[in-house]
Amino acid sequence: MTGIDPGYSAALDEICRLRAALAYEARVVESHLGLATFPKSRRPIAQQQITRMRAAASRRVPEDYAGTDSLRRQELLKAAGGTGTLTRGEWEREVATLANQTTGATR
Asked: Going by C-beta distance under 8 Å and a sequence separation of 6 or more, which residues neighbour residue 65?
């Protein structure tokens, strides 16, 4: 036993996967800029999005995000289909539910 809390370790793994997903999405948006049909008027906005996504994926949360108040963050998370907050207990239940769905076990 390493003394590392498995819940903490799993949370760090999830953070890593989320950063990788954000970096991937930045690359997808960037590839759209190469399309001749991509509107020129939207290019600067898309480039700013790419810059912010890559910064966040690299652990440099841009001021655009850092300044977002907690109520606004909760609204954004809910609009994306997530929960407004995520406590450790909620996260552990979510991980257990996903694990059960993967293995077919029930709790």
From this structure: 52, 56
Identity of the amino acid at 56: A
Q: How confident is the model at residue 17 (pLDDT cuts 50, 70, 90)?
A: very high
Q: Residue-wise over 24-52: b if at least 16 C-beta within 10 A, else e?
A: eebeeeeeeeeeeeeeeeeeeeeeebbeb
Rounded-to-integer distance, Cα 42 and Cα 11, Å: 36
Q: Are 1 and 86 in contact (CB under 8 A)?
A: no
Contact 22, 102 (CB under 8 A): no
Question: Among residues 76, 70, 32, which one has the least CA distance to residue 50?
Answer: 32
Residue 42 backbone dihedrals phi, psi, to 5 degrees: -95, -10
Is the confidence at residue 1, as pLDDT, over 50? no
Q: Residues, the chain, total?
A: 107
